[in-house]
Amino acid sequence: MGVFILRKLGAALIVVFLASVLVFGGVRAIPGDPALAYAAEDRDPEVLAAIRDKYGLDDPLPVQYVRWVGLAVQGDLGTDTRGLPVAETIVTRIPLTLELAGLAILIGTVLGIGAGVIAAVRRGKPSDYAATTVALLGLSVPHFWLGLLMILVFAVNLGWLPASGYVPFREDPVENLKHMLMPAIVLGAGLSAVLMRQMRSAMLESLGADYVRTARAKGLSEWTVVGKHALRNSLITVTTVIGLQLGALISGAVVTEQIFGIAGFGRLTVDSIAQRDYALLQGVVLVVAVGYVVVNLLVDVAYSLINPRIRVGGGST
Amino acid sequence: MNWIRTRRARSGFVALAVVAFGLLATGAGSSVAAESRTGGTLTIGLAEDPDALDPTLARTFVGRMVFLHMCEKLYDLNGRLQITPQLAAGMPTLSGDKRRMTIRIRRGVRFNDGTPLNARAVKVSLDRHRTLAGSARASEISPITSVDVVGNYTVRLNLNARFSPLTAQLADRAGMIMSPKQLDALGARFASNPVCVGPFKFTSRTAGDRIVLDKSQFYYARNKVKLNRIVFRIITDTSARAANLRAHDINVLDRIASTDLPAIQRDRSLRVLKATSIGYQGISINIGNKNGIGKPFVNVGTPLASRRALRQAFELSLDRRVINRVVFGGTVLPGCLPVPPASPYYDARIKCPGRNLSRARSLIRSTGMSTPVHVRLMIGTDQVAARLGQVIQSMARDAGFQVDLQPTEFVTALRRQDQGNYDAFAIGWSGRVDPDGNIYQFVHSKGSLNNLGWGSGRMDLLLDNARKAATLGARKTLYSAAFRVLRSELPLIYLYHPVNRHGVTANVKGVRLYGDGLIRAYFAEYK
Amino acid sequence: MSYVEATPLSARAHRRRILRRRFLRRPAAVASLVVVVGSILGAALAPSIAPYSPDATDFNALLAGPSREHLMGTDDLGRDTFSRVIWGARASIQAGFFATVLAMVIAVPIGLVAGYYRGWLDTVIARITDVLLAFPFLILAVGLAAIFGPSLLNATLALGIAAVPPLVRIARGEALALREEDYVRAAVANGANDAVIVGRHILPNMASTLLVQATLTIPAAIIGEAVLSFLGLGVQPPTPSWGVMLNAAQPYLNEAPSLAVYPGLAIVVVALAFNLLGDGLRDVFDPKTQR
Q1: Which of A232, B142, B295, C160 meets the CB 3.0–4.6 Å disulfide criterion with C102?
Q2: What are B474-517's pLDDT values in tens digits?
Q3: Cα separation of B520 and B517, whole Å?
Q4: Tell me, what's the pLDDT at B491?
Q5: Does B236 contact C at CB distance below 8 Å?
Q6: Which residues of chain A have a CB within 8 Å of the CB of B430?
Q7: φ and ψ at B426, to 5 degrees?
Q8: How far apart are the CA of C173 and the nearest CA of chain A, in angstroms?
Q9: pLDDT in tens, C212-250
Q10: Which three-class secondary structure state does DSSP give residue B82?
C-alpha cells in the first residue's frame, strides 16, 4: 500500500510539473497583450511600456517561468490586475468552489443512486420507465436553461431563494445553504442523470451475478441482497463515474457560477482569460491541476478500500 | 469494516440531503432583511469588478464608483457637473502667466488611519500620480512639472503650459490624496488596503465577489454619514443583477439593462435614477491606420476609408431613432456629436441627419462603386453589441451596403484596433467632464488613441487652441468648429449617448446620481 | 422481389433482418428515429421550408406573439421565430454531427492501436486519456475562442476534441475484447497482417458499438453548442442556432419568455430523440442489456 501510494505520488508530481508548463505556455498563447487589457481606455505607448515593465512581460519566457515557479513553490502566486495577492484570492475561493462542487456531487449522487437502484430493482415497472425517462430528459436539457428557469420561478416569482450570490458558511449557515441550493441542483442535475443510468445497468449486472444469486438462494431478504451485495459492488462504478465527471463538473460550474453570480474558480478562470490576468489565470489553473491530481489519488485509494481485490492500473472498460 | 465506513458516510449524505431539501420545501421566506433606520448595510450591485483600488493605477469606470465612497479628491462635481472644492479649501488660483496654480487645503481633515491631511500629503500623492511606474494619472496631469509645499496647508503646482482641463482632472482620480503613512507601509501594494480621506474606509475585498467599506470614525463630516457599511457586490450577468434587485438582495443596481427596465419600473418597491452619460457610442472607421497606431497615416483603401461620400451614405442609411427603439427599448439618447446635449459645449445648431435612403443611394452612385459595398464591422461579443450590429447590418443593407459582422472578444478587439486590423468598429467612450477628454485623443493627429488614422491640420489647430483658451465662450466656439469638421468628414459616426439608469429599493433615500453616471450613496440612509 | 426471399440469406443479411425486426418492436426508438430524420431533413431543406429568411428584420413587429404570419411570433429584432428555429437546426445539428465525426476520426484509430497492440503504448494512451477526461472542455473552448475568435467552426472543434477521450476508452475496450475472439486469433494464426485484421475483423465488429456511441455523442455536442453560444463563444449573429437564440432570449425572460421556449424545446426534443435512438440501438445490438 505504501509503495503504491509513493509511486502514485511521484507520478502526480510529474503531472503537476507538466501542468505548470502547459498552463504557463497556454496562457501566453492567447493573443492580446495583458497590458492592453489592463490599460483599456487609458492605453498609450508609454503606459503600456510601463505596465509591461512592471509585470516583467518583456523578459524571455523561460526567465518569466522560472520566476513564477520559484515564487509559487514558496506560496507566492504574484498579484493580479486588481493589485491583490493571487494566493489569497484562491484561498478565499476554495471553500466556495469546494462547497458548490461537494453539494452538487451530493445531490447528484443521492438522486442518481436512488433513482438508479429503484429503476434496477423495479425493472420493467412504471417507476423504472419514469426514472429512465427523467434521466434521459436530464441529459437532454441544457443546464443553463434549467438555471434560468429556476431563478425565474424560485427567486423572482416565489421569492423563496436568493437569485444569486454567496454567504460564507461561517457567517450564516442557513443563508449559505439557501444561496447554494439552486446552483448545486443545477450543477448536480447532469451528474445525477449520468449516475442514474450507470447505476441502473451496474445494478442489473450485479443482480444477475452468481454471488447475488447465491445470496438469494441462502434465503437472505431482498433488501439485504440489494443493499449489501449488489449496491456495494455497484458503488465502484459510481466512484469511477464521479471521477470521470470532474471535467464536466468544472465546465458546468463555469456556466452555473455565471448565472448565479458566484465568484468561484469557474468564473475566476473565464474572467481572467478575458482580462488576460496572467497571474490569476496561472494560479487558478495550477491549483485546479493540483486539486485534480489529489482527487485522483484519493479515488485510487478509495477504489482499493471499497474493493481491495481490484488492481488499480490500466482501468479496462 | 469497509461496509461500516460506507454506511456511516451514506447516512451522513442522507442527513445533509434531508436538510437541503427541507430548506427547499419550506423556502424559509424573508429574503429582505429588516434594517434599522440609522446605520445598516447598503448593498450595491456592480456590473464589473473594479481593477486595482489604487487611485494612481486605477482605470475602470466602476472603480471610480467605489473610490467616491472612500477616497475624496481635491475637487468634486456638483449635480450640475460644476467643479467645487472638496479637500481643497477653495478654487485654485492661477498666476498671471498661468504657469503656477496655487491650491489651499482644508484644515482639520484626517485620513481614515487617523493621520492628518496637509500640504505634504498632497505633494506625496500628486508626485506619486505623476511618477509611479504604470501610473494611469501621469498623462492626465502631464503639464505639472513639480509640486511645491508652500505652507502647511498650501501647495503650488508648477506647469509647463496652460492647461484648462487640469482642475477637472483634479476632480477625478488624479485629485485623490492617499495617506502617506499607508503609502510608506504598503508602497506598490497600496491597493490591498487603500487609505484615503473618505466617509467610508476600506475593510476587505474578495476578487470577483465583493468590496466591503465601513463607516469612518475620522471623516470630517461623519454626522452626515448614516450607513454603517456599504458592500459592493460584483454581479456581471445583467439579468441576475436585475433579479437580485427585484428580490431586494441588493439595494442599488449599477446600470439597468434596457431589457430589464420594464419589470423594474413596474415594481412599486423600486425606484429608477437616471443620468445621461457624458460619453458616446459610435462607429470608428479605420481611415489611415494601416501600420498600427502612432505610425504615419496611410489610407487603408477600403470603400469607407477612401470615399467620404460613402461614409456619409452609410450614416444616412442608419436611423438613430430606430436604433434607440429596437436595440435599447428607447432608453438611450440619439446623438451625432462627441458630447451629449447636457454638456455646456454642446452645439444645438448642429442638426443630426435623419435616415435618407434615396440620398444614401445617390451618394453611392456618385462614387461609381458597384453595390453591394462591403463593410466589415467589428462588434463586441455581448448581446447588446449583437443586437446593435444586426440592426446596423439590416438598415445599411437597404442602402446597398453589405455589412459583415465580426464579433470580437474585447482585448482582441482593442489589439486589432491598435494594429489597424479592422475596417469599422462599433465602440464608445465612457466620457470625461471636459470635452477635450472626449475628442483630442481620438481625432487629433497626435492623439494617443487615434486608431482612425485620420487627422487634419484644421482639426489639430482647433483642438490645440481649445486646450489653451481660457474662457468658456472661446472654447465653445473652437469646439463647435471642430464638431463641424467631424460632421463633414465622418471619421467617427457618433450614434448615441448612453443613459445610465440605476435601480434603488424604495426603502433607501439619499442615493444620488450625477451626469458622470456614478452612484453616490455615501450619505444614503434607510427610511 | 419475392424471389429474393427464396435465395438463401447470407449471414449478414440475416442478422440485418433480425436487427430491423428488433428495432421496429421498439416504438420509442422508431419515434425518435422519425424525429431525428425529420430534424435533419428540416435542417437540410431550411431554405425551402422556412417561410422567411432567418435575418429578415421587421422593426415594426418586435416581440410579436404567434399569428398566422408568424407561427411562433417574432424575436427582439422582428424576425420570424419559426424560420429561425428551422435555420437554427442547421448550425446545431452541424455542430453535433461534425463534432462527433471529428471525435470518431481521432479517437477510433488511437483506441484501436492502444487496444490491439497493448504494451507501453496502451499504458501511455490510457493515462493521457484519463487526464484529458477530467479536463474541462469549456476552458478549452474559451481559450480557442480567445485565440481564433468565436465561430461555429471553433465551437465544433472544441466539442469534437472534448468528445475524444471517452471514445478512445470505448474503442480501446472493444479492440481489447475483440482481439481475443476466435476468428481474430484464427486470422492471426493464418498470418494475416495487422491492417487486414483490424480492417476486416475488428473494425466492422466495433461498428455497432460506435454507432450507438455516436448517437449519444451527438446530443451532448448539440447541447454543448448551445452552452458555448450562450456564453457568446459559438455561432455568431446573425446566423441563428438554437444556442444563439437562447442567448438572445435571456434578457427577455421577463418580457417575452416564449422567445426562449421554442429554441429550448427544439434542443430538448432533438437531444432526447438522439438519446432515445442511441438507447434503442444499444438494446437492438446487444439484447443482453435489456431484460
Answers
A1: C160
A2: 999 999 999 999 999 999 999 999 998 999 999 999 999 887 78
A3: 9
A4: 96
A5: no
A6: 41
A7: -85, 100
A8: 6
A9: 888 888 998 998 888 888 777 788 878 888 988 888 888
A10: coil
**Strand extents, DSSP E, B254-313:** 270-276, 280-285
User: Do residue B240 and residue A164 have CB atoms under 8 angstroms apart?
Assistant: yes
C-alpha cell at C148: 481564433
How near does any CA of chain A get to the CA of C103, in Å?
17
What's the gap in Å between the CA of A128 and the closest CA on chain B?
22
* Whole-number percent of chain C with pLDDT over 90: 18
Nearest CA in chain A to C233: A270
Which of the two residues, C80 and B138, has the higher pLDDT score?
C80
Which of A80, A305, A306 is facing B207, going by the closest CB pair? A80
Contact A263 B234 (CB under 8 A): yes
ipTM for the whole complex:
0.78
Q: Quick one: closest CA in B to C55, which residue? A: B394
Of A198-202, A212-216, C64-68, C155-159, give the lowest mean pLDDT range. A212-216
Check residue B16 and give its pLDDT. 35
Residues in a beta bridge with B101: B94, B157
Residue type at B252 in one-letter notation: V
pLDDT above 90 covers a percentage of chain B that reads: 65
- Check CB contact under 8 Å for B207 and A263: yes
Residues 90-119 of A with CB under 8 A from B: 92-93, 103, 106-107, 109-110
* Rounded Cα–Cα distance for residues B107 and B92 (Å): 16
Are B59 and A38 in contact (CB < 8 Å)? yes
Burial of A92 (0-12, 13-18, 19+ CB in 10 A): middle
Which residue from B238, B409, B412 is facing C251, i.e. has the nearest CB? B238
What is residue A304's predicted lDDT score, i.e. its pLDDT? 65
Residue entry with cell 463641424: B484
C-chain residues within 8 Å CB-CB of B236? Answer: none
Nearest to B70 by CA among B251, B235, B230: B230
Inter-chain contacts counted by CB atoms under 8 A, chains A and B: 190
**In this predicted structure, which of B17-21, B36-40, B120-124, B501-505 has the lowest mean pLDDT?**
B17-21
Residue B376, chain C, CB below 8 Å: the answer is no
Q: How confident is the model at residue A308 (pLDDT cuts 50, 70, 90)?
A: low
Closest by CA to C266, choosing from C44, C36, C49, is C36
| Residue B428 near residue B350 (C-beta atoms within 8 A) | no
Q: In this complex, do B408 and C149 lie within 8 Å of one another by their Cβ atoms? A: yes
Q: Which residues of A are less than 8 Å from C230 in CB distance?
A: 142, 144, 255
Position of cell 498632497? B122
What distance in Å separates the CA atoms of residue C74 and residue C76, rounded to the nearest whole number? 7
pLDDT in tens, C156-199: 988 898 888 889 988 888 888 888 888 888 888 888 888 888 88
Region for residue B176 given its phi and psi (left: phi exceeds 0; alpha: psi -120 to 50; beta: otherwise): beta
Task: Find how far residue B100's CA is from the centre of its chain.
Answer: 30
The residue of chain C nearest to residue B411, with distances taken between CA atoms, is C146
- Nearest residue in A to B63, CA atom: A82
Q: What is the pLDDT of residues B120-164, one digit of tens each?
A: 999 999 999 999 877 888 888 888 999 999 999 999 999 988 777
Query: Subunits with at least 3 CB pairs below 8 A relative to chain C?
Result: A, B
* Mutate: best of A52, A99, A164, partner B, most B CBs <10 A: A164
Task: Give the integer Cα–Cα distance in Å for B313 and B369.
Answer: 12
Q: C266: which 3 cell numbers?
A: 427544439
From the list B337, B368, B364, B338, the residue with the least C-alpha distance to B353 is B337
Residues 6 or more apart whose Cβ sits within 8 Å of residue A180: A99, A100, A103, A166
Distance CA C71, CA C65 (A): 8
Does C136 contact A254 at a Cβ distance shorter than 8 Å?
Answer: yes
